[in-house]
Amino acid sequence: MKTNESSIATDVGPKCFYIPMGRRRFLHSIATTSSGFALSGYLAEALTVTPQVTQGPYYPLAKNIPLDKDNDLVQLNDSLTAATGIVTYVSGRVLNSSGDPIRGALVELWHADAGGNYTYATNAARNPAADPNFAGFGQFLTGSSGGYRFRTVKAGLYRGRTRHLHFGVTIPGQLKRYTTQLFWNEVAKDANGTVWDTTNANDMVLTGITNSAQRASVVKDFTAVAGTTTGEQEASWDIVMGLTPIEPNYPGSGGLVVAGRAVSGPNGNPRYKITLPVYSGYSYEVYSNPTFASLAWSARPFSLSQTGSIDRNIYTATAEGSLDIYLDAAAVKGFYYVSFREPNANVGTP
What we know:
Number of strands: 18
Shape: globular
CATH class of the largest domain: Mainly Beta
Strand content: 25-35%
Radius of gyration: 20 Å
Order of helices and strands: HEEEEEEHHEEEEEEEEEEEE
Distance between the termini: 21 Å
Helix content: under 10%
CATH topology of the largest domain: Protocatechuate 3,4-Dioxygenase, subunit A
Structural class: mainly beta
């Protein structure tokens, strides 16, 4: 099922709201990249506020979002088969308008697969026409450097749009995601080399950004990754927010950086138990920080029982109390970071 966004209006005002690389190499590349974000106060090339544009109709529903909603969209959950397409990396920082990094920014990425299909579906867990090995959605939580990094595939083309990626950013203190899109600096062509009907010059979302500096800021060169021979591409893009982050207050006491305790899991395999105070209406996600220092935190799926299935990646509390969470993945330093979303905040649906 091909998709079409041609009827969606834009809003550019800064409102409050195949593939030979394995995951180990990808995580190593993140560790290497993080050193590039170590300079305090390092400014964006141009502090142009990233324009807000339509979220579009294909932000995945909760049932379309993979259990493994990390920053690697090339491999879905525990599958060993990679998504079809040209591996593409996008990295950068989330900054405020003064060039300071924003810690704790939730960065979401979703886009069409190599064939032009989204995973979005209303009557199924995911669109059956989409590449079954493509995650379709990923998220990152920035560390102190404000840095983020995704591994995905080059977005496919579909009628009515040029090639693009969708991003949603929710910074601390904001209840709604700030949506934007990133475009290739190219004349889009189909698999036969024919110029696509919709290019950057007539794409209704891109041309709807009336401020020329803002429009230029979301069009980037995707260049060959050095040292690779498989056509991998990369781009660097700093997302500049015209909003001020506000550290939200968590009710009661108790920290959200929690040590994991090894316990016996199903079939004799270990699990890691964390316990935290929860409050009605608050939603909780668990992240761990494997090998890449302050660049970002990686989302982890979990279970609410010691031997039950790892079956969720977010939990919304219905009452105040204490919650036990169980994870299969050990944190490198033994600690997990639990992120909370306030009641009525962005919980992953439009």
